[in-house]
């Protein structure tokens, strides 16, 4: 029974003595140790250039460490085949700062894309996409081509696309950076609800307001090192903002 117990409790992400450098440049991150359990929620903080994007890139399997070990879903990414990595990425939702949308497609088709890859029926896709675009207040823009939309609208489409597949882990790089406060807190409520369903969430942000309101633990990067800043207090009904 012990091996079964270990499978149930294995972390979503596990990093041991990880360092990152690009080419011969100095290290961006050094001797990083981090464990993310299933269902956890963290903010990722640090000044610009501290290595937040590099850390996220390892989590979504776009970057391998220069040294050390990164394990995602129980697999060491240094020894995982391309085919297996592709399957693992289907369980990861990512919100990029520069959106990575298919600009020639509609808002609807961008959000529907992950579900079509899974082979879901068009009826179920239609239901899920319309429901989610309504949630992020883009139900009147679902047929609009993405290249014609504002930065804030593109941000919300990118978030909808990242969560539509109900990923096991959601990684978001400044997801509220291009929207007003009302939309920002509505998006946060979406992340909180997804987390309640079991998704592990990591949100990179500079917003001290978000951090103060929700007060989840912080993965803080500074001087190439990582430290965890615990949530010292819980805010009642934070997800009601």
Describe this protein's structure.
- The chain starts with a helix and ends in a 12-residue tail after the last strand.
- Strand 9 and strand 10 (225-229) form a beta hairpin.
- The protein has a six-stranded mixed β-sheet, with helices on both faces.
- Helix 4 (107-118) crosses helix 5 (122-135).
- The chain has a domain at 102-166.
- Helices cover 36% and strands 22% of the residues.
- It is built from eight helices and ten strands.
- It has 241 residues and is α/β, with parallel strands linked by helices.
Report the strand count. 10
- Spans with pLDDT under 50 lasting ≥5 residues? 1-7, 234-241
Number of helices: 8
Largest sheet: 6 strands, mixed
Order of helices and strands: HEEEHEEHEHHHEHEHEE
Strand order of the largest sheet: 6-7-8-3-9-10
| Average pLDDT over all residues | 88
Give the helix/strand class: alpha/beta
Helical amount: 25-40%
Brief summary:
The chain is of the alpha/beta class and 241 residues long.
